[in-house]
Amino acid sequence: KLDPLDAFWEENFGLLCQYRDEKGGDCLVPQGYEIAEEGVRLGLWVYTQRQAYLKSKLSEERMRRLEELGFKLDPLDAFWEENFGLLCQYRDEKGGDCLVPQGYEIAEEGVRLGLWVYTQRQAYLKSKLSEERMRRLEELGFKLDPLDA
């Protein structure tokens, strides 16, 4: 029989698997996300897993299982991926346009996408944007140099 804490972890892990399947492989659960009918605050559980990882309090087995699921343990990587996904949606909705106004917010997601876009350009100008991230943004049609945008 499972310890209650292990049972809680397994239940939430199962719900994360369902979330990923419903979102087409996306494990980027917003922190405020709740599954009302289950009474589960999945976003908070995901946040807690990342905090445990940062504090080296997540078991090797749990890390492995989360990583196999495609879960980003590093919160900064997860934040970048979430915003990149929202930029992709923005581009699709705007017919290929990645020119997000600096003040643009997605209220229901609690995301300031315009600020994130600005931050990516600043990181690029300061040579602090990884090659992989530059490539992914450029493939999207995103102009890294603000003078080109």
What this model shows, in words?
This is Helicase-associated domain-containing protein. Pfam families: HA. Residues 6-71, 77-142 form the Helicase-associated domain. It comes from Octactis speculum. The chain contains six helices and no strands. Helices cover 56% and strands 0% of the residues. The mean pLDDT is 90. It has two domains: 4-69, no CATH class; 75-139, no CATH class. It starts with a helix and ends in a 10-residue tail after the last helix. It has 149 residues and is mostly helical.
Secondary-structure element series: HHHHHH
Shape: elongated
What structural class do you assign from the helix and strand content?
Answer: mainly alpha
> Percent range for helical residues?
55-70%
- Biggest sheet: strands, sense, closure? none
Distance, first to last CA = 58 Å
Oligomeric assembly:
single chain
Summarize the entry for a quick read.
This is Helicase-associated domain-containing protein. The protein has 149 residues and is mostly helical.
Task: Label this structure with key terms.
149 residues; mainly alpha; 2 domains
Which helices and strands occur, and which strands form pairs?
Elements: H1 4-22, H2 42-54, H3 60-69, H4 75-93, H5 113-125, H6 131-139
